[in-house]
Amino acid sequence: MIKLKEYLPQIEDLIDRALEEDLASGDITTDSVIPPHAKGKASFISRSTGILAGIEIAGMVFLKVDPFLKFSALIADGTAVKPNDILATVSGNTANILKAERTALNFVQHLSGVATLTARYVELVKGLPVKILDTRKTVPGLRVLEKYAVSVGGGTNHRLGLADLILIKDNHIAVLHKRGLEIKEIIRQSRSKVAPNIRIEIETTNPEDALAAADAGADIVMLDNMSLDEMRSAVELVNHKAILEASGGVNLETVRSIAETGVDWISVGALTHSARTLDISLELVEY
User: Fold this and answer.
1) What DSSP character marks residue 275?
2) What three-state secondary structure class fits 28?
3) Which pTM value belongs to this model?
4) The sheet that has 280-286: what strands, in order across it?
5) The domain spanning residue 193 has which CATH number?
6) Which residue(s) pair with 283 in the sheet?
7) Which domain holds residue 215?
8) Integer Cα distance of 216 and 258 in angstroms
9) Residue 188: pLDDT above 90?
10) Element (H, E) at 207
11) In this prediction, what percent of the chain has a pLDDT beyond 70?
12) Residue 284, burial from CB neighbour count under 10 angstroms (0-12, 13-18, 19+)
């Protein structure tokens, strides 16, 4: 699971850039109608059911705008929330609360949406020995936070960046096939160029290639867009020689059937590229 404190400089830079989108030239609405010394208190309120993620990020947004604001998270990330639950409060200068409001909500709504969708996938495969993984199909710049939200929702993080493991995909294979290399040689070449602790994964499109990859020493074999019957065949042929990852065509309707084939991992790009935001509002309760 990603630990946000290990990425604080990156997250703070992200928050700075998000705030700049709104406040680079100030907030002429708030500055024209709210007295500069007015004090207030606001509550984050859930308007729907889901899994909370990113509440502390929301707090960081407020403190970036005004370090004298008081932010208190009342419900922790990873908690199931329902309509009318109060998630957090923020108090202090009313104008600064309003200036930070949208950016803070954007983070917590989006990340909670990712966590909520992930939890739905995890629940659908409950009882089966399979992990739900994310992918690199993330909003540019938001990867660390989105993958954090996946883990909050009960999912497992795949590689964060291209240096985390070797993943030989279709385009790599096409280039190497043209040079006369088959799966065995491709894996041997990769293994010779990295440290022993670096895992190698390779994409395959049929059970026979999956077996060849496992026999050649691949640590993880991706079963790309295979039918359920092909996946079952690959599971039987590979027989635990490598981790099998199902990929492609995964949705809420198909994930259980895919899990029942016996694969070890199921990667789901939709966790990050198709999650709907969770409905959360910020309301002034004292002003």
Assistant:
1) P
2) helix
3) 0.96
4) 70-73, 86-93, 39-46, 280-286
5) 3.20.20.70
6) 43
7) 123-273
8) 25
9) yes
10) helix 207-215
11) 100
12) middle
Angle between the N-to-C axes of helices 183-192 and 207-215, in degrees from 0 to 180, rounded to the nearest 10: 40
What span, in angstroms and rounded, lies between the C-alpha atoms of 42 and 284?
Answer: 4
pLDDT at site 1: 80
Mean pLDDT along residues 228-242: 98
Residue type, 256: R
Task: Give the separation between CA 112 and CA 106, rounded to whole angstroms.
Answer: 10
| CA proximity to 204, closest of 180, 238, 179 | 238
Tell me: do 33 and 62 sit in the same domain.
Answer: yes
Instruction: Provide the greatest CA pair distance for the chain.
Output: 73
For residues 37 and 10, give the distance between their C-alpha atoms in angstroms, rounded to a whole number: 32
* CATH number of the domain residue 97 falls in: 3.90.1170.20
The tally of domains found in the chain comes to 2
The DSSP code for 254 is T
Residues 153 and 39 in one domain: no
Q: Count Cβ neighbours within 10 Å for each residue of 76-114 and write b for 16 or more, e otherwise.
A: ebbbebeeebebbbbbbbbbbbbbbbebbbbbbbbbbbb
Q: Are residues 38 and 172 in the same domain?
A: no
Q: What angle do CA 267, 273, 276 make, to 5 degrees?
A: 115
Q: Which residues are catalytic?
A: 102, 137, 169, 203, 224
